[in-house]
Amino acid sequence: MTADRSSQGTPTIVTLTPNPSIDRTVELTSALERGAVLRAAATSSQAAGKGVNISRAAVAAGLPTIAVLPADAEDPYVLELLAAGIDCRPEPPAGDVRTNLTITEPDGTTTKINSPGATATPEVLGRLRTALGQRSRGAAWVVLAGSLPPGAPDDWYATLVADLVAGPAAVAVDTSGAPLEAVAAHLPVAAPALMKPNAEELATLTGGDPDAIEADPVAAAKAGATLVERGVGAVLATLGAGGAVLVTAEGAWHATPPPTTVVSTVGAGDSSLFGYLLGALRGEDAPGRLRLAVAYGSAAAGLPGTTIPTPDHINPELVDVAELLVPTTDPRKP
Q1: Cα separation of 57 and 64, whole Å?
Q2: Of the candidates 224, 230, 273, 291, which lies 20 to 30 Å from 311 by C-alpha distance?
Q3: In the structure, what pLDDT confidence band is assigned to residue 265 with cuts at 50, 70 and 90?
Q4: Which residues pair with 113 in a beta bridge?
Q5: What do you get for the CA distance between the two ends of the chain, in Å?
Q6: Residues contacting 79, CB < 8 A, separation 6+
Q7: How many CB atoms lie within 10 A of CB 317?
Q8: How confident is the model over 285-310, as a mean pLDDT?
Q9: For residue 114, how many other CB atoms are within 10 A of its CB?
Q10: What are the pLDDT digits (tens) for 46-98?
Q11: Cα-based distances in Å from 66 to 21, 203, 231
């Protein structure tokens, strides 16, 4: 099986995963206890990474997608993606695909141990940048997702956003730490159509209290509004068990998830982002996009490991969406 095959039709969603991972999950039979001998109820392994997870969800929903990432064409990681129907376009990597370990407890508590990944050279980054530009022609959305590999400058995503915003595709960014701060620092010159922070990431960007933002949808909406006022098209802030808040120039909304028995939170944020993209591609209004985002995220939380939900898992009719009244912080607006 080869990784150099053609996508069927124009790619609707192109994803970039510059630091892909093999996600290995251990499901414990009891609570995690340091220094103890514990038993596993089950173990699993899956080719993953935030962008790859979104492409996986797209395939399950019948949407054309291309996943751009660094890996050898015959790497088992790539072959697994191809076997799952994901149009994977690997570029020569700096080293082996990293392995991340997830430990889940019976109550749904999730502990992650992430490896750094191979150190990317300027040549590796250049190949990925060129490939992304080529593959995104004609796409509806381009998603820049996940951590950057060691060796990548903090502003690399910001550079890619600047490359892409002049094109026809809408750009979504889902990252954290210094790369996320660099994207915000380049606003409004290079502003993505969508940013998907969690409460902690949103607090980092806006100077708020992460606990207060996660607990209070209005606080999350106010924080998200500061990014919209700086040029971001929409901010989808995921709030864990509190659902999510969507802020656009037209308003703000909060969605409450249906009752969910949490099994693993890994991949829930990626699934939420895909739900939003699916809603946008269907022509849904803002509340409809938010409803699908929360439906996908809550479904992912109820599945083991890094399992990405399929349309059969989704119950958007069980998601409540309410409009929020958020005063503007822009002194130019009444």
Answers
A1: 11
A2: 224
A3: confident
A4: 101
A5: 59
A6: 1, 3
A7: 8
A8: 93
A9: 14
A10: 999 999 999 999 999 999 999 999 999 999 999 999 999 999 999 999 999 99
A11: 17, 32, 27
Best CATH choice for the domain 193-334 from the list 3.40.50.300, 3.40.50.11720, 3.40.50.150, 3.40.1190.20? 3.40.1190.20
- Tell me the β-bridge partners of 46: 23
Q: Give the pairing of strands 194-195 and 65-70.
A: unpaired
Show which residues are catalytic. Answer: 270
The burial class, CB within 10 Å (0-12 / 13-18 / 19+), for 115 is middle
pLDDT at position 331 over 90: no
Under a CB-based contact definition with an 8 Å cutoff, are residues 105 and 266 in contact? Answer: no
For residue 324, the SS3 value is strand
Contacts of 76 (CB under 8 A, 6+ apart): none
Structure tokens at 111: 């502990």
